[in-house]
Amino acid sequence: MDGEILIARLEAAGYIRADSPEEAALMVINTCGFIEEAKKESLGALLEARAAYPDAKILLAGCLAQRYAADFSVSLPEADGIFGNGDLSLVDQAAAATLAGKRPVLTPVPVEELSVEREPVFSFPGSAYVKISEGCSNRCAFCAIPLIRGPLRNRPIPAILEEIRGLLGRGVFEINLVGQDLGASDLPALLDGISALPGDFWLRLLYTHPDHFPLGILPRIRSDHRLLPYFDLPFQSGSDPILHAMNRLGTAGDNVRLVEQIRCALAGGRPPAFRTTFLCGFPGETDGDAEATVGFLRAIRPHWSGCFTYSREEGTPAAKIRGQVPKKTAQNRVRRLGEVQGQITGDVLAGYIGCRETVLVEEVFSAADVGGADSSGGGSYAIGRAWFQAPEVDGAVILRYDEDDKASREAMVSGARVSARITGVSGVDLPAVYIGAAG
Length: 439
Ligand code: SF4
What we know:
Elements: H1 2-12, E1 26-31, H2 36-52, E2 57-62, H3 63-67, H4 69-75, E3 81-83, H5 91-99, E4 105-106, E5 127-131, E6 133-134, H6 145-149, E7 153-154, H7 157-169, E8 174-178, H8 187-195, E9 202-205, H9 217-223, E10 230-232, H10 240-245, H11 252-265, E11 273-280, H12 287-300, E12 304-309, H13 327-350, E13 356-365, E14 381-385, E15 397-400, H14 406-411, E16 417-422, E17 430-437
Parallel strand pairs: 1-2, 2-3, 3-4, 5-8, 8-9, 10-11, 11-12, 15-17
Antiparallel strand pairs: 6-7, 13-14, 13-16, 14-15, 16-17
Helix pairs in contact: 7-8, 12-13
The protein binds iron/sulfur cluster.
Iron/sulfur cluster binds next to helix 6.
């Protein structure tokens, strides 16, 4: 969503968005510097753009630009300007200097007041991310984010509510709250404010540090069906020594109990959906620690998890720990967790077969789009998501509909909601059939 803020700021300053990269006089590449893979991807995008559009000016923005500005100003001649992420409202200055050939290096200090006026340009149809805080004060030993984005700054609740009200008014149905750690803000008070908003919507919470999960949100989620019982808790490991070395306060047992506590508090309603992340190959992680993580995963049985290999980030405490784990070993541990998660996801998703679910439609394909009708009588389908599937990271619903039926054809619009019957499981996705308008 920083990209959306950059666009909004540039448009407010009079810049016009180009329809295609070929037409652009200026390209802004918004980078991520969280982990090694993200850094490579960001720099790869810069080099590709440089090669493909030699005449355009390129402004390298985002947290990677912020972190390595001094280095990049010398080592990256492919960038015509460098702009950090401390104060996005200054992007028009960086853009003007870049276009003027001044090769600016602008790394503003982080501002207290977060700028957020924007259109949901990059989100899926009907869905938007809303940032409730910036920065992080948790200091997990492996993580460079506090160094890049600064300490935690919470946005005022009235400003967040105002933004959500505006998005809902523009037809957005799904609001995804983001921040480095949602639990570090006054989430119960925010949910009270959101609950007071009229109309139907989905409110999804992404990223809540398990060490200070705000249990006070559970009664609110229980009493308002619009607040999704979807919990994204980045546990990172199931081994106590590794959690301790990561500067996590809770033990694996505490984390299992937290999941049980959430399930128990919401019993009788929709069974909650969990997503987590694991970091494999943290310095000192033994085979026994890795096995403990597999056991932990089996104990909590989340719908989804993302597994990543540890990368040594300069400036972080973990970078100085002895016993760095070979990349190959870390990759094998990622693979093993992925296999176990695959089985769990398959089992959990099978529980939805036969259920009627509201699906937020993302993309619609007619039979003509996919090369004609198939043997089952129709090639037309849509891709969408049910409440337990977060955008970008989780599986999807693959929704068959009858293109010859006017009502179903007209219902299949990106960003609209429909009602569907889940008919099976296909990998991480759920085949389904259209059964009518969303109730
Ligand atoms: S809570 Fe997340 S962003 Fe904050 S230090 Fe830990 S891993 Fe990094």
